[in-house]
Design brief:
Helix content: over 70%
Largest sheet: none
Number of helices: 6
Mean pLDDT: 87
Number of domains: 1
Strand content: under 5%
Structural class: mainly alpha
Number of strands: 0
Shape: globular
């Protein structure tokens, strides 16, 4: 009877890892596509750019919901709920700031990058047992630094949205690295 419990826990762990790996690959593809579209739209705050700026944190909310559902079986989801709330506020904040100008958008985006980066770092630390999380931990730390850079860049004479494309691309690459690492840890497990 006691051997069934570890086998059940292991199956939950593998299922959560596979779901997380798929989610990370989807997040990688989304980040690259989003960054490309933002670069094509240019540095002006057009209607298309505003929609893109809203979509990125909105997608983060959806990804956190999917993540929480798959992670529930494996344990802690508190950080994911915090991420949902922060990203939902960021989506609304970016939509509102879009009416004021690029500098305000960068300030909101920067604040979101700092807070969500801290959350990502903490969730990555809590998930170390799943494997493949060092990239999420590093990405969270970089997000905090990038957020400060966005806030600082907002006060420049000609603030630009194109720096956000680099941020999204790097974040996407970290998601891909984590997906690959999760694949390896699942194969070893």
């Amino acid at each position: 009877m006691t051997s069934a419990a570890p086998a059940s826990a292991s199956a939950k762990h593998v299922g959560a890892t596979a779901a997380l790996r798929r989610l990370y690959v989807i997040r990688f593809v989304f980040a690259l596509a989003w960054a490309a579209l933002l670069l094509v739209s240019g540095s002006d705050l057009t209607t298309g750019a505003r929609v893109l700026l809203f979509l990125y944190p909105a997608f983060d909310v959806v990804a956190a919901v999917v993540d929480a559902r798959s992670a529930r079986a494996a344990g802690s989801v508190k950080g994911l709920y915090a991420n949902m709330a922060v990203s939902a506020l960021a989506a609304v904040g970016v939509a509102v700031a879009g009416a004021s100008g690029t500098a305000d958008v960068l300030r909101v985006w920067g604040a979101w990058a700092i807070v969500s980066g801290l959350v990502q770092l903490l969730v990555g630390v809590a998930r170390r047992s799943l494997g493949g999380q060092w990239a999420m931990i590093v990405s969270g730390g970089i997000s905090v630094l990038a957020g400060g850079s966005f806030i600082s860049g907002a006060s420049q004479d000609n603030p630009s949205l194109t720096t956000l494309a680099g941020y999204a691309t790097l974040g996407g690459i970290f998601f891909l690295v984590s997906a690959i690492r999760l694949s390896r840890s699942t194969a070893r497990g």
